[in-house]
Protein backbone atom coordinates (compact mmCIF):
# COMPACT_ATOMS: atom_id res chain seq x y z
CA UNK A 1 0.00 0.00 0.00
CA UNK A 2 2.77 2.38 0.95
CA UNK A 3 4.54 1.41 -2.26
CA UNK A 4 1.42 2.05 -4.25
CA UNK A 5 0.94 5.50 -2.70
CA UNK A 6 4.55 6.33 -3.37
CA UNK A 7 4.16 5.21 -6.96
CA UNK A 8 0.97 7.22 -7.42
CA UNK A 9 2.65 10.30 -5.96
CA UNK A 10 5.71 9.79 -8.14
CA UNK A 11 3.62 9.54 -11.28
CA UNK A 12 1.54 12.57 -10.33
CA UNK A 13 4.56 14.81 -9.89
CA UNK A 14 6.63 13.46 -12.78
CA UNK A 15 6.55 15.69 -15.85
CA UNK A 16 5.96 13.90 -19.16
CA UNK A 17 9.50 14.46 -20.40
CA UNK A 18 10.87 12.60 -17.41
CA UNK A 19 8.18 9.96 -17.34
CA UNK A 20 9.38 6.53 -16.44
CA UNK A 21 8.24 3.63 -18.57
CA UNK A 22 8.07 0.91 -15.94
CA UNK A 23 6.10 3.10 -13.54
CA UNK A 24 3.70 4.06 -16.32
CA UNK A 25 3.31 0.43 -17.36
CA UNK A 26 2.42 -0.55 -13.79
CA UNK A 27 0.00 2.37 -13.50
CA UNK A 28 -1.63 1.03 -16.70
CA UNK A 29 -2.11 -2.37 -15.04
CA UNK A 30 0.89 -4.13 -16.59
CA UNK A 31 3.54 -6.20 -14.80
CA UNK A 32 6.59 -4.75 -16.50
CA UNK A 33 8.27 -2.63 -19.13
CA UNK A 34 11.58 -4.09 -20.19
CA UNK A 35 14.34 -4.35 -22.73
CA UNK A 36 16.55 -6.92 -24.37
CA UNK A 37 20.23 -6.70 -23.65
CA UNK A 38 23.31 -8.67 -24.60
CA UNK A 39 26.61 -9.58 -22.98
CA UNK A 40 28.99 -7.46 -25.11
CA UNK A 41 26.95 -4.37 -24.19
CA UNK A 42 27.60 -4.85 -20.48
CA UNK A 43 31.09 -3.36 -20.84
CA UNK A 44 29.60 -0.01 -21.96
CA UNK A 45 29.17 1.83 -18.67
CA UNK A 46 26.89 4.59 -20.00
CA UNK A 47 24.71 1.87 -21.53
CA UNK A 48 24.64 -0.14 -18.30
CA UNK A 49 23.63 2.93 -16.30
CA UNK A 50 20.43 3.32 -18.28
CA UNK A 51 19.89 -0.47 -18.58
CA UNK A 52 19.90 -0.48 -14.78
CA UNK A 53 17.40 2.37 -14.50
CA UNK A 54 14.57 0.39 -13.02
CA UNK A 55 12.14 3.27 -13.27
CA UNK A 56 12.22 2.62 -17.04
CA UNK A 57 13.08 -1.10 -17.16
CA UNK A 58 12.05 -3.60 -14.51
CA UNK A 59 12.55 -6.53 -16.88
CA UNK A 60 15.33 -7.69 -19.17
CA UNK A 61 15.61 -10.41 -21.81
CA UNK A 62 18.98 -11.87 -22.82
CA UNK A 63 19.28 -11.23 -26.57
CA UNK A 64 21.49 -14.24 -27.26
CA UNK A 65 23.13 -15.90 -24.30
CA UNK A 66 20.40 -18.34 -23.26
CA UNK A 67 20.02 -19.71 -26.80
CA UNK A 68 20.96 -23.28 -27.71
CA UNK A 69 24.33 -22.48 -29.34
CA UNK A 70 25.36 -20.62 -26.19
CA UNK A 71 24.01 -23.05 -23.61
CA UNK A 72 24.61 -26.55 -25.06
CA UNK A 73 27.41 -26.11 -27.64
CA UNK A 74 28.26 -29.82 -27.45
CA UNK A 75 25.80 -32.59 -26.72
CA UNK A 76 25.17 -32.81 -23.00
CA UNK A 77 27.75 -30.12 -22.16
CA UNK A 78 26.00 -27.07 -20.78
CA UNK A 79 27.59 -23.63 -20.48
CA UNK A 80 25.65 -20.96 -18.67
CA UNK A 81 28.28 -18.26 -18.20
CA UNK A 82 26.77 -15.76 -20.66
CA UNK A 83 23.22 -16.27 -19.44
CA UNK A 84 24.38 -16.16 -15.86
CA UNK A 85 26.04 -12.76 -16.45
CA UNK A 86 22.72 -11.32 -17.66
CA UNK A 87 20.93 -13.04 -14.79
CA UNK A 88 23.38 -11.50 -12.31
CA UNK A 89 22.79 -8.06 -13.84
CA UNK A 90 19.03 -8.51 -13.41
CA UNK A 91 19.37 -9.74 -9.84
CA UNK A 92 21.67 -6.86 -8.92
CA UNK A 93 19.09 -4.39 -10.21
CA UNK A 94 16.03 -6.24 -8.96
CA UNK A 95 14.78 -6.76 -12.52
CA UNK A 96 12.56 -9.55 -13.82
CA UNK A 97 13.83 -11.81 -16.60
CA UNK A 98 12.14 -13.37 -19.63
CA UNK A 99 13.99 -16.57 -20.49
CA UNK A 100 14.79 -16.70 -24.22
CA UNK A 101 14.69 -19.40 -25.59
CA UNK A 102 14.55 -23.20 -25.41
CA UNK A 103 13.80 -24.38 -28.96
CA UNK A 104 14.37 -22.34 -32.11
CA UNK A 105 15.43 -23.23 -35.66
CA UNK A 106 18.14 -20.56 -35.54
CA UNK A 107 21.38 -20.25 -33.57
CA UNK A 108 21.62 -24.02 -33.21
CA UNK A 109 24.95 -25.78 -32.87
CA UNK A 110 25.88 -27.98 -35.84
CA UNK A 111 25.65 -31.12 -33.70
CA UNK A 112 21.89 -30.56 -33.45
CA UNK A 113 21.28 -29.47 -37.05
CA UNK A 114 23.48 -32.07 -38.70
CA UNK A 115 23.17 -34.91 -36.22
CA UNK A 116 20.76 -37.03 -38.32
CA UNK A 117 19.04 -38.10 -35.12
CA UNK A 118 15.95 -40.26 -35.26
CA UNK A 119 12.69 -39.15 -33.66
CA UNK A 120 13.29 -40.88 -30.32
CA UNK A 121 16.84 -39.55 -29.97
CA UNK A 122 15.94 -35.98 -30.92
CA UNK A 123 12.99 -36.15 -28.54
CA UNK A 124 15.31 -36.95 -25.66
CA UNK A 125 17.74 -34.22 -26.80
CA UNK A 126 14.96 -31.61 -26.80
CA UNK A 127 13.71 -32.85 -23.45
CA UNK A 128 17.16 -32.74 -21.91
CA UNK A 129 17.97 -29.31 -23.34
CA UNK A 130 14.75 -27.68 -22.15
CA UNK A 131 14.72 -29.28 -18.74
CA UNK A 132 18.39 -28.55 -18.02
CA UNK A 133 18.13 -24.94 -19.22
CA UNK A 134 14.92 -24.15 -17.38
CA UNK A 135 16.03 -25.99 -14.21
CA UNK A 136 19.30 -24.05 -14.18
CA UNK A 137 17.50 -20.71 -13.82
CA UNK A 138 14.72 -21.93 -11.55
CA UNK A 139 14.80 -19.94 -8.33
CA UNK A 140 17.99 -18.13 -9.43
CA UNK A 141 16.29 -15.21 -11.11
CA UNK A 142 12.99 -13.42 -10.84
CA UNK A 143 11.60 -15.11 -13.90
CA UNK A 144 8.46 -13.81 -15.54
CA UNK A 145 8.29 -16.33 -18.35
CA UNK A 146 10.19 -18.57 -20.76
CA UNK A 147 9.97 -18.46 -24.54
CA UNK A 148 9.94 -22.25 -24.75
CA UNK A 149 9.18 -22.32 -28.47
CA UNK A 150 10.42 -19.58 -30.74
CA UNK A 151 9.12 -18.88 -34.26
CA UNK A 152 7.35 -22.15 -35.12
CA UNK A 153 5.45 -20.74 -38.13
CA UNK A 154 6.06 -19.56 -41.66
CA UNK A 155 4.32 -16.34 -42.64
CA UNK A 156 1.55 -18.27 -44.44
CA UNK A 157 0.68 -20.07 -41.19
CA UNK A 158 2.21 -23.42 -42.10
CA UNK A 159 4.69 -24.96 -39.69
CA UNK A 160 8.26 -23.92 -40.33
CA UNK A 161 10.59 -26.69 -41.38
CA UNK A 162 13.52 -27.18 -39.04
CA UNK A 163 15.50 -30.11 -37.77
CA UNK A 164 12.86 -30.43 -35.04
CA UNK A 165 9.79 -30.31 -37.28
CA UNK A 166 11.39 -32.47 -39.95
CA UNK A 167 12.29 -35.18 -37.46
CA UNK A 168 9.55 -34.97 -34.84
CA UNK A 169 6.65 -33.24 -36.60
CA UNK A 170 4.78 -30.89 -34.32
CA UNK A 171 5.47 -33.13 -31.31
CA UNK A 172 8.62 -31.14 -30.54
CA UNK A 173 6.35 -28.35 -29.29
CA UNK A 174 4.66 -30.45 -26.64
CA UNK A 175 7.87 -32.24 -25.73
CA UNK A 176 9.57 -28.90 -25.01
CA UNK A 177 6.59 -27.43 -23.15
CA UNK A 178 6.16 -30.53 -20.98
CA UNK A 179 9.88 -30.60 -20.17
CA UNK A 180 9.89 -26.92 -19.24
CA UNK A 181 6.82 -27.34 -17.02
CA UNK A 182 8.39 -30.28 -15.20
CA UNK A 183 11.67 -28.39 -14.72
CA UNK A 184 10.06 -25.26 -13.25
CA UNK A 185 6.36 -25.62 -12.49
CA UNK A 186 6.21 -21.94 -11.51
CA UNK A 187 7.45 -20.54 -14.82
CA UNK A 188 4.99 -19.14 -17.35
CA UNK A 189 5.55 -20.93 -20.64
CA UNK A 190 5.29 -19.03 -23.93
CA UNK A 191 5.38 -19.56 -27.65
CA UNK A 192 6.90 -16.50 -29.33
CA UNK A 193 6.73 -15.39 -32.97
CA UNK A 194 6.90 -12.42 -35.36
CA UNK A 195 4.36 -11.21 -37.90
CA UNK A 196 1.51 -12.20 -35.60
CA UNK A 197 0.85 -8.60 -34.51
CA UNK A 198 -2.21 -8.21 -36.73
CA UNK A 199 -4.92 -10.68 -37.67
CA UNK A 200 -4.08 -12.97 -40.59
CA UNK A 201 -2.96 -16.46 -41.51
CA UNK A 202 0.02 -16.59 -39.18
CA UNK A 203 -1.87 -15.21 -36.19
CA UNK A 204 -4.72 -17.66 -36.88
CA UNK A 205 -2.22 -20.52 -37.00
CA UNK A 206 -0.89 -19.47 -33.59
CA UNK A 207 -4.43 -19.26 -32.17
CA UNK A 208 -5.18 -22.74 -33.48
CA UNK A 209 -1.95 -24.14 -32.08
CA UNK A 210 -2.70 -22.75 -28.62
CA UNK A 211 -6.26 -24.13 -28.77
CA UNK A 212 -5.04 -27.57 -29.74
CA UNK A 213 -2.31 -27.60 -27.06
CA UNK A 214 -4.82 -26.59 -24.42
CA UNK A 215 -7.32 -29.20 -25.52
CA UNK A 216 -4.62 -31.88 -25.27
CA UNK A 217 -3.57 -30.73 -21.81
CA UNK A 218 -0.14 -29.43 -22.91
CA UNK A 219 1.01 -26.58 -20.67
CA UNK A 220 0.90 -23.18 -22.39
CA UNK A 221 0.52 -19.88 -20.54
CA UNK A 222 1.18 -17.19 -23.08
CA UNK A 223 1.90 -16.03 -26.58
CA UNK A 224 4.77 -13.67 -27.20
CA UNK A 225 4.15 -11.18 -29.95
CA UNK A 226 7.58 -10.03 -31.07
CA UNK A 227 6.55 -6.82 -32.88
CA UNK A 228 9.54 -6.17 -35.12
CA UNK A 229 7.61 -3.55 -37.04
CA UNK A 230 8.13 -0.97 -39.79
CA UNK A 231 7.41 2.75 -39.41
CA UNK A 232 3.99 3.57 -40.88
CA UNK A 233 3.02 -0.11 -41.11
CA UNK A 234 1.71 -1.09 -37.68
CA UNK A 235 -1.20 -3.43 -38.42
CA UNK A 236 -4.50 -1.67 -37.78
CA UNK A 237 -5.87 -4.91 -36.31
CA UNK A 238 -3.28 -5.14 -33.53
CA UNK A 239 -5.73 -4.52 -30.69
CA UNK A 240 -8.36 -6.87 -32.11
CA UNK A 241 -5.64 -9.46 -32.57
CA UNK A 242 -4.46 -9.23 -28.97
CA UNK A 243 -8.07 -9.56 -27.86
CA UNK A 244 -8.41 -12.82 -29.82
CA UNK A 245 -5.49 -14.35 -27.94
CA UNK A 246 -6.98 -13.16 -24.66
CA UNK A 247 -10.17 -15.11 -25.34
CA UNK A 248 -8.13 -18.33 -25.18
CA UNK A 249 -7.50 -17.75 -21.48
CA UNK A 250 -3.78 -17.16 -21.89
CA UNK A 251 -1.66 -14.07 -21.42
CA UNK A 252 0.10 -12.18 -24.15
CA UNK A 253 3.19 -9.98 -24.11
CA UNK A 254 4.88 -7.72 -26.61
CA UNK A 255 8.30 -9.36 -26.46
CA UNK A 256 10.70 -7.77 -28.96
CA UNK A 257 9.32 -4.39 -29.94
CA UNK A 258 11.23 -2.21 -32.39
CA UNK A 259 9.96 -0.11 -35.30
CA UNK A 260 12.47 0.36 -38.09
CA UNK A 261 12.73 2.90 -40.87
CA UNK A 262 14.73 3.41 -44.05
CA UNK A 263 17.68 5.62 -43.13
CA UNK A 264 18.40 8.45 -42.83
CA UNK A 265 15.87 9.23 -40.16
CA UNK A 266 13.97 12.47 -40.69
CA UNK A 267 11.75 14.51 -38.38
CA UNK A 268 8.73 13.18 -40.27
CA UNK A 269 9.81 9.54 -39.87
CA UNK A 270 10.57 10.05 -36.18
CA UNK A 271 7.13 11.65 -35.71
CA UNK A 272 5.46 8.70 -37.43
CA UNK A 273 7.55 6.33 -35.32
CA UNK A 274 6.33 8.08 -32.18
CA UNK A 275 2.73 7.43 -33.28
CA UNK A 276 3.54 3.82 -34.10
CA UNK A 277 5.06 3.14 -30.69
CA UNK A 278 1.99 4.75 -29.12
CA UNK A 279 -0.33 2.49 -31.15
CA UNK A 280 1.43 -0.69 -30.02
CA UNK A 281 1.56 0.34 -26.36
CA UNK A 282 -2.07 1.47 -26.41
CA UNK A 283 -3.12 -1.93 -27.79
CA UNK A 284 -1.33 -3.67 -24.91
CA UNK A 285 -2.78 -1.23 -22.41
CA UNK A 286 -6.30 -1.89 -23.72
CA UNK A 287 -5.87 -5.66 -23.42
CA UNK A 288 -6.04 -6.87 -19.84
CA UNK A 289 -4.27 -10.13 -20.77
CA UNK A 290 -1.28 -8.21 -22.14
CA UNK A 291 1.12 -8.37 -19.20
CA UNK A 292 4.06 -6.32 -20.42
CA UNK A 293 6.18 -4.89 -23.16
CA UNK A 294 9.86 -5.52 -23.95
CA UNK A 295 11.79 -3.46 -26.50
CA UNK A 296 14.47 -5.34 -28.49
CA UNK A 297 17.12 -3.20 -26.93
CA UNK A 298 16.45 0.35 -25.97
CA UNK A 299 19.15 2.14 -27.99
CA UNK A 300 19.91 2.26 -31.71
CA UNK A 301 23.55 1.81 -30.70
CA UNK A 302 22.98 -1.92 -30.17
CA UNK A 303 19.98 -2.63 -32.38
CA UNK A 304 20.12 -5.79 -34.55
CA UNK A 305 18.31 -4.04 -37.41
CA UNK A 306 21.15 -2.42 -39.45
CA UNK A 307 23.07 -5.70 -39.46
CA UNK A 308 20.11 -7.61 -40.87
CA UNK A 309 18.17 -5.07 -42.98
CA UNK A 310 20.66 -3.12 -45.02
CA UNK A 311 19.88 0.63 -45.11
CA UNK A 312 17.37 0.40 -42.28
CA UNK A 313 17.62 1.23 -38.60
CA UNK A 314 16.77 3.87 -36.00
CA UNK A 315 14.23 1.38 -34.63
CA UNK A 316 14.62 1.90 -30.88
CA UNK A 317 13.25 4.55 -28.48
CA UNK A 318 16.73 5.97 -27.72
CA UNK A 319 19.18 7.01 -30.44
CA UNK A 320 22.80 5.88 -30.91
CA UNK A 321 23.98 8.52 -28.45
CA UNK A 322 21.63 7.16 -25.79
CA UNK A 323 19.34 10.19 -26.17
CA UNK A 324 15.56 9.71 -26.01
CA UNK A 325 13.73 9.99 -29.32
CA UNK A 326 10.10 11.03 -29.94
CA UNK A 327 9.37 7.27 -29.82
CA UNK A 328 9.93 7.43 -26.05
CA UNK A 329 7.13 9.99 -25.74
CA UNK A 330 5.01 7.71 -27.92
CA UNK A 331 5.42 4.93 -25.35
CA UNK A 332 4.51 7.36 -22.56
CA UNK A 333 1.44 8.50 -24.51
CA UNK A 334 0.43 4.89 -25.16
CA UNK A 335 0.38 4.14 -21.45
CA UNK A 336 -1.23 7.39 -20.33
CA UNK A 337 -3.85 8.40 -22.90
O1 LIG B 1 19.07 -9.80 -31.21
C1 LIG B 1 19.55 -11.03 -31.69
C2 LIG B 1 20.78 -10.79 -32.55
O2 LIG B 1 21.84 -10.25 -31.78
C3 LIG B 1 21.21 -12.08 -33.20
O3 LIG B 1 22.26 -11.82 -34.09
C4 LIG B 1 20.04 -12.70 -33.90
C5 LIG B 1 20.45 -14.00 -34.54
O4 LIG B 1 19.41 -14.65 -35.13
O5 LIG B 1 18.96 -12.91 -33.00
C6 LIG B 1 18.48 -11.72 -32.51
O6 LIG B 1 17.34 -11.90 -31.75
C7 LIG B 1 16.21 -12.49 -32.41
C8 LIG B 1 15.38 -13.17 -31.35
O7 LIG B 1 16.18 -14.08 -30.64
C9 LIG B 1 14.19 -13.87 -31.94
N1 LIG B 1 13.39 -12.97 -32.75
C10 LIG B 1 14.12 -12.19 -33.74
C11 LIG B 1 15.30 -11.47 -33.09
C12 LIG B 1 16.01 -10.61 -34.12
O8 LIG B 1 16.61 -11.40 -35.08
Automatic annotation (TrEMBL):
Protein name: Beta-xylanase
TM regions (residue ranges): none
PROSITE patterns per UniProt: GH10_1 (PS00591), GH10_2 (PS51760)
Subcellular location: Secreted
Biochemical pathway: Glycan degradation; xylan degradation
GO cellular component terms, semicolon-separated: extracellular region
Key words, A-Z: Carbohydrate metabolism, Glycosidase, Hydrolase, Polysaccharide degradation, Secreted, Signal, Xylan degradation
Any GO BP: xylan catabolic process
Pfam families: Glyco_hydro_10 (PF00331)
Signal peptide interval: 1-19
Family: Belongs to the glycosyl hydrolase 10 (cellulase F) family.
Residues covered by the GH10 domain: 18-334
Active-site residues, as the UniProt record annotates them: 256 (nucleophile)
InterPro entries: GH, GH10, GH10_AS, GH10_dom
Entries under PANTHER family matching the protein: ENDO-1,4-BETA-XYLANASE, GLYCOSYL HYDROLASE
GO molecular function: endo-1,4-beta-xylanase activity
SUPFAM superfamilies hit by this protein: (Trans)glycosidases
Statement: the UniProt record of this protein carries the keyword Magnesium: no
Reaction catalysed by this enzyme: Endohydrolysis of (1->4)-beta-D-xylosidic linkages in xylans
Organism expressing this protein natively: Collybia nuda
Enzyme Commission code: 3.2.1.8
Amino acid sequence: MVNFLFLALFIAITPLANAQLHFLAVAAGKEYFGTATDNPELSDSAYVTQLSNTTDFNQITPGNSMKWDATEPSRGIFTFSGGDAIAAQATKNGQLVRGHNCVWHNQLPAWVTNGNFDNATLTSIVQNHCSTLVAHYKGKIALVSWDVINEPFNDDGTFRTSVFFNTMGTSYIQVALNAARAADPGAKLYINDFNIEGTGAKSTAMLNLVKSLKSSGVPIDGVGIQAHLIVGQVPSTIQANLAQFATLGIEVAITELDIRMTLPSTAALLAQQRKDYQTVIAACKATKACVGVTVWDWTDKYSWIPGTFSGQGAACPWDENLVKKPAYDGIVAGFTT
